[in-house]
Amino acid sequence: MNISVDLIKKLREESGAGLGDVKEALVQGQGDLTKALEILRKKGQKIAAKKSGRTAKEGVIAFYRAGNKIAAVGLNCETDFVARNENFLSAVDGFAKKLMAIGEADFNAWAEEEIKNSLIVKIGENLQLAFAKIIEGNILGGYLHSNKKAAAVVILNGGTEELAKAVAMQVTAMNPQYGSPEDVPAEIIAKEKEIYKEQLKQEGKPAEMIEKILTGKIQKFYTEVCLIKQPYIKDDKISIEKLLNGAKVTQFTKFTL
């Protein structure tokens, strides 16, 4: 059957599928564009079923910002080669934009269908949605690392968006577990003290010194796990608390693939 170049081009634009798949679908659909699209969707579902057991540990994160909201989407693939592919990167950007448009409640179902019916045919690997989240705040800053595998969003009370972005970069790089010492659960502090005490006893430190040393150890612990106590990555002579200069971090969210 003779299939026109224009029809092939149109189906490729609509489906994103490869040239061979498009030609085959048009032949099977006897030149009917609607039938050919349905054939490609079914093929995508079959490929998805076959590849579903394959590990998808690579991938990228995309942000889309609209006003005081940031939509964050992470999409996993099988190989780093695909994670660097322009079609894949463009698709993830599109997912973030779609998330912003339709909201979290409807996005997962849409994404699942889009992956099975279209994207897997186009990309040719097992793909899995890692996360999809919209974060909203008046003073909002986001940072996406150059490898697109780590990112963070920070909301401030006070300060500026540039400050929020700087703190988001800190979160991405240093991975704090808590915002401030007050946020650390008492049982975590108790466990750290127990470990430090045992270490100090093993070192032969006298009992009267141990409590004094513990204070310093816990303060050091805070600089590792609490965001506001961490040294600022761009100037380790100041802490994040000092960088904030009175502004408060009300929420921070880190994303990783």
Task: Describe the structure concisely.
The chain is of the alpha+beta class and 257 residues long. It has 10 helices and 8 strands. It has a 3-stranded antiparallel sheet.
List keywords for this structure.
elongated; 22% strand; GTP Cyclohydrolase I, Chain A, domain 1; Helicase, Ruva Protein, domain 3; alpha+beta; single chain; 3 domains; 257 residues
Question: Architecture of the largest domain in CATH?
Answer: 2-Layer Sandwich
Write down the overall geometry.
Answer: elongated
Radius of gyration: 25 Å
Overall number of strands? 8
Write down the overall mean pLDDT.
88
**In terms of quaternary structure, what is this?**
single chain
- Tell me the domain tally: 3
Uncertain residue ranges: none
Report the β-strand fraction as a percent range: 15-25%
Strand order, sheet with most strands: 1-2-3
Which range best describes the helical content: under 10%, 10-25%, 25-40%, 40-55%, 55-70% or over 70%?
40-55%
CATH level-1 class of the largest domain: Alpha Beta
